[in-house]
Amino acid sequence: MSKPSGVLVVGASAAGLATAEALRRKGYTGELTLLGEESRRPYDRPPLSKQVLAGAWSPDRAQLRSEDVPDALGARFVLGDPAVALDVPTRTVSTAGGLALRADAAVVADNLLGEQRFYAPVPYYWTDQFDARIHVHGVPTADADVTVVEGDLASRRFVALYHRDGDPVAVLGWNMPKQARQHRQSLLGEPRVPHLSEGRR
């Protein structure tokens, strides 16, 4: 597969900037454009809402990179003009300001264009009382089917999955917090990533 002559990254925040930097690090030398909704360069959002607004930091300190980033990346930044549509056949992104940006390849987060998706958090709570490290992800209920998927009850070290109507609804970890955290991904509809310890014998 030939390398694209131009790449358009929709989203000029921390993730978009990291994508552009990764492309350059991997040796991509073609045209690179970052399109962002906000008019300012990428900044660190948590400190903006805490340290900067509290007066502990100056606004410049929240900048993720220095002002010479465009020159260092050899990238074009189109800021203050959000993307509103993507034409897949022509690989063209239209902006609210009327621009039509075309590239051989486009990097677009699935919630930036098209149907809006809302974040659905997974409830989580834990305790280390009663000589046990208990971690619960999701909402276990009495009517759910429960299956122990790691460890065993006798050793008091196990991970149990709760299913209702075939769908995972909760994960219970008893003295196995790391493994329980891995199974949490099933609640998000994602495949479980094995823990590093699983490759050891």
TrEMBL record:
Pfam families in alphabetical order: Pyr_redox_2, Reductase_C
InterPro entries, per the entry: FAD-oxidoreductase/Apoptosis, FAD/NAD-bd_sf, FAD/NAD-binding_dom, FAD/NAD-linked_Rdtase_dimer_sf, Reductase_C
Cofactor annotation: FAD
Official protein name in the record: Oxidoreductase C-terminal domain-containing protein
Organism name: Allokutzneria oryzae
Reductase C-terminal domain mapped to chain residues: 124-186
Boundaries of every FAD/NAD(P)-binding domain copy: 7-109
Keywords: FAD, Flavoprotein, Oxidoreductase
